[in-house]
Write a structure and sequence with these properties.
heterodimer; A: about 250 residues; alpha+beta; six-stranded antiparallel β-barrel; 5 helices; about 25% helix; B: about 170 residues; mainly alpha; about 0% strand; globular
């Protein structure tokens, strides 16, 4: 009887119990066992060698700067025609600790509504978008990762040296990568093209990288479409800290 | 049953199960990890008398719910499976490791399927996981459960479990 009643109660109400448990035991839950990298790898860092993690970080930073450059070019073109009326306020970042990675490609993070975190906001790590906020309690929030297959996000595909963006939507494959469905084969998409999260007025002011296209082939079910696979540059198992993009101030959120 | 000791034990199992420590034994990107609460459910449903088995099953389910993301599904799943397993106890011989493995595997499959179904019903969000995830998680749970069974057996003495008499 009690369990049936708990099941029937709305999720918004009962999720407070889950948040309470996490808040109470977060020091224990977030304890990790990390094997020192020296034990795994026999390679020693030298002047011409960097770790995969460092490579991904540098690659992500480079691609983001490139996207910023394109944005600046666009803005410069507009500025040369007329003056902007209002300055861009800029986005703030709320740093959060990853309490745990949950089954089904979710993360539980240590920041919540009190810190200005809202549903829909973008979550980044090492400069790349890793997911969006899907649930918020007072002190915690749940992040749905981009590799979650129930998660859809508007993106832009960009090729280096080319200023035109191709707009599309991505979906996770529930394992480690993402897919872009419903892109016609009329469009020229190739491995190596970079995928950025589309900016929007509420949650993101500049495009931020999500990943790189690693595989493009004709869709087996519909030969008129591409089957596109994207590999995010983030190792989700090793995520310990993330940053939530908060476009409004904490005071406004309250 | 010494209920305070039981609550402390099940709380400890829940914290280990929900903690990031479990990431250490998680296999592959499919997040194949054992569910220690299902192993505990199998043990307590088997070892306790009927009334205690029902209470421990629902309490274990409650702990699974509260440490997860949705309240309700695990309590019902653990309750139903625990009660059924308790009823079948007389025809099962869990002293052999392979029997424990088989029983925990089937219980884990049933529990995970019911939880997925009820979670989708409650939240309206159906996450289609790769088909292999539930069988592999159940297999891993059964493997770990079969090996930690003697630890639970030892704990039973501390918990003062009132063992049922075999028929």
């Amino acid at each position: 009887m009690v369990s049936a009643a708990v099941l029937i109660l709305p999720h918004q109400i009962t999720s407070n119990l889950n948040s309470f448990f996490v808040e109470l035991f977060s020091p224990i839950i977030s304890l990790r066992i990390d094997i020192p990298k020296d034990l795994i790898s026999s390679k020693t860092p030298g002047s011409d060698w960097v770790s995969r993690q460092e490579y991904n970080r540098l690659w992500t930073a480079y691609k983001n700067i490139y996207a910023d450059l394109l944005e600046e070019h666009e803005r410069l073109e507009k500025m040369s025609q007329y003056r902007s009326y209002l300055p861009k306020s800029g986005a703030g970042l709320v740093a959060a600790k990853v309490i745990r990675k949950e089954p089904g490609q979710f993360l539980l993070i240590s920041r919540g509504a009190l810190d200005g975190v809202r549903v829909g906001q973008y979550v980044m790590s090492d400069g790349a978008v890793v997911g969006t906020i899907s649930e918020v309690s007072t002190a915690n929030a749940r992040v749905t990762l981009v590799i979650n297959n129930s998660h859809s996000l508007e993106v832009r595909i960009l090729r280096e040296g080319n200023n035109d963006y191709l707009r599309a939507n991505i979906k996770g494959d529930a394992v480690r990568a993402c897919k872009i469905p419903l892109v016609s084969r009329e469009f020229d998409v190739k491995p190596g093209d970079v995928v950025f999260a589309s900016p929007n007025t509420r949650f993101l002011d500049t495009p931020r990288i999500i990943g790189e296209i690693t595989h493009v082939a004709p869709d087996q079910d519909n030969p008129l479409l591409w089957d596109i696979t994207i590999r995010p540059p983030i190792e989700y198992d090793r995520l310990q800290e993330v940053a939530v993009v908060v476009m409004e101030t904490v005071m406004e959120a309250k | 049953m010494k209920w305070l000791n039981f609550i402390i034990t099940i709380m400890a199992v829940t914290l280990i199960n929900a903690g990031s420590v479990m990431g250490f034994i998680t296999i592959s990107n499919l997040e194949i990890r054992p569910d220690l609460l299902i192993a505990a459910l199998a043990f307590f449903a088997y070892i306790s008398d009927r009334r205690d088995a029902i209470i421990t099953s629902f309490m274990t389910g409650f702990m699974a719910d509260i440490s997860g993301s949705t309240m309700g599904p695990a309590m019902i799943a653990f309750g139903i499976v625990g009660v059924c397993f308790s009823a079948l106890r007389d025809v099962l011989l869990m002293e052999r490791r392979r029997n424990r493995f088989g029983a925990i595997f089937l219980m884990a499959m049933a529990v995970m399927l019911i939880i997925d179904l009820l979670t989708a019903l409650k939240t309206g969000q159906h996450i289609t996981r790769p088909y292999l995830v539930i069988p592999l998680c159940s297999f891993y749970t059964a493997l770990v459960g079969a090996f930690i069974w003697p630890t639970f057996d030892f704990m039973a003495v501390v918990l003062g479990v009132k063992k049922r008499n075999p028929r």
